[in-house]
Hints:
Helices cover 27% and strands 49% of the residues.
Amino acid sequence: MKYQCEVTIDLPRERVIDLFDSTDNLMEWMPGLKSFEHLSGEPGQVGAKSRLLFDENGRKMEMIETITSRNLPDEFSSTYEAKGVKNWANNFFYEEGPNQTRWVADHIFEFSGFMRIIAFFMRGAFPKQTMATMKLFKSFAEKS
């Protein structure tokens, strides 16, 4: 499954990147995130791996993030792996003016096992969740 979402943030790109690139801010805009733990590699750099633990209404999930590309302020890409799911997330940041940044997120999901069935029936939920998370970041950033 492939899709793209985008949001315009009313802040200069440099400020958006500062907020986006800080792991200290993740819990401010990632719903259900309970912990972020660096596992290996240089933190924040290509090849670094981290564990993200989520709890969404009692449904616990663990993801492993691997940074695949870091070309900030233009692009930040990573993979997220959880049981039955792999997500390639490619984030691009464009200056839309002196005080606006357009964030475009391209996602590719691959499912295996039981998650293939779940994904088939919940296809629309994935882009909606991505868009909701992006809007939470926008709100957090514009208030910071």
